[in-house]
Design brief:
Layout: H1 2-7, E1 11-13, H2 18-25, H3 31-46, E2 48-55, E3 58-65, E4 67-73, E5 86-92, H4 94-102, H5 109-114, H6 119-131, E6 139-142, H7 143-150, H8 157-174, E7 179-182, E8 186-190, E9 199-202, E10 216-219
Antiparallel strand pairs: 1-5, 2-3, 4-5, 6-8, 7-8, 9-10
Helix pairs in contact: 6-8, 7-8
C-alpha cells in the first residue's frame, strides 16, 4: 500500500527474489520465515472481503477483492518447499485503490520491524494509527468491545486484560504521539498526530497511463 501511494499507481512491483523481500522487511533468512512470507503473500492475494450494509430497513452486501491480479514466479534462490512461487507484482483492485487514496494509513516501517514477534502489539499499532489521527474528539471503547476485536482467543476478560495492556505498552513505545487512556471501563482514544507526518510525493505515472495517473498523492513511509 505504501508503494502504491508513493508511485500513484495500483500496479506494484515487490521484487524478484524472496531475499529482497525479507531484507526489506527486516525478517531473518530461513526456512520458516521464507515459507511463512510466501504463504501469507498468496493468501493476501486471494483474500476476498464481504461487507454487510444496512440502511433504511434494507440490507445489502458488498464483496471486495484486495488484489485484481498477482504474478508469482518460481524462486530459484530459495526452494518453495510446499509453496510454489514468490510474489513479484500485484495490481490492487480498483475499488480498494480508490479507498486507499482517500484514506491512507501512515505507518512507520521501523515500528513494524520493532514489533516483530508481537502480533497483538502490531495489530494495536495499526489500529491506533488508523483511528487516532482522524478522530474529531475523544472516543471511549469499552473492555467488551476491545476484547471482541483483539481477544477472540481469550474466554475471560480478566485473562485478556493484562495481555492487552502489555501489548498496548509495546505499541505506544513505537507510537509515542498516541494519546490513549486506560480505565476500569475500557480505553479512551484521543485525537493524536499520525505516527508518520503525511508527505506529498511527485507521481511519475503508471506503466499504463490513464485513470490511475495523478499529479500528487498523499502517503507516508
Amino acid at each position: 500500500m505504501t508503494r502504491a501511494i508513493e508511485t500513484g499507481c495500483r500496479e506494484v512491483e515487490l521484487g524478484r527474489s524472496m531475499r529482497h523481500w525479507l531484507d526489506k522487511m527486516g525478517i531473518p533468512q530461513g526456512g520458516p520465515s521464507n515459507r511463512g512470507v510466501k504463504g501469507q503473500a498468496e493468501r493476501l492475494s486471494r483474500c476476498r472481503l464481504s461487507f454487510q450494509v444496512s440502511r433504511g430497513g434494507r440490507t445489502g452486501l458488498v464483496n471486495q477483492n484486495l488484489v485484481d491480479a498477482a504474478l508469482f514466479l518460481d524462486d530459484e534462490e530459495l526452494p518453495a518447499r510446499g509453496v510454489a512461487h514468490t510474489l513479484e507484482c500485484v495490481r490492487l483492485s480498483e475499488t480498494f485503490w480508490e479507498q486507499l487514496k482517500r484514506h491512507p494509513i501512515p505507518l512507520e516501517e521501523a515500528a513494524i520491524q520493532s514489533l516483530q514477534g508481537h502480533s497483538m502489539a502490531l495489530d494495536l499499532y495499526c489500529w491506533l494509527a488508523y483511528r487516532l489521527h482522524v478522530l474529531p474528539n475523544a472516543r471511549p471503547v469499552s473492555w467488551s468491545a476491545v476484547k471482541a476485536q483483539f481477544g477472540t482467543g481469550f474466554r475471560r476478560l480478566d485473562h485478556f486484560r493484562p495481555v492487552f495492556l502489555l501489548n498496548l505498552e509495546l505499541a505506544l513505545a513505537v507510537y509515542p504521539e498516541a494519546k490513549v487512556e486506560v480505565s476500569e471501563r475500557g480505553v479512551t482514544l484521543f485525537p493524536s498526530k499520525p505516527p508518520v507526518a503525511p508527505k506529498l510525493f511527485a507521481i511519475p505515472g503508471c506503466k499504463n497511463p490513464g485513470k490511475d495517473r495523478t499529479s500528487t498523492s498523499l502517503g507516508a513511509r
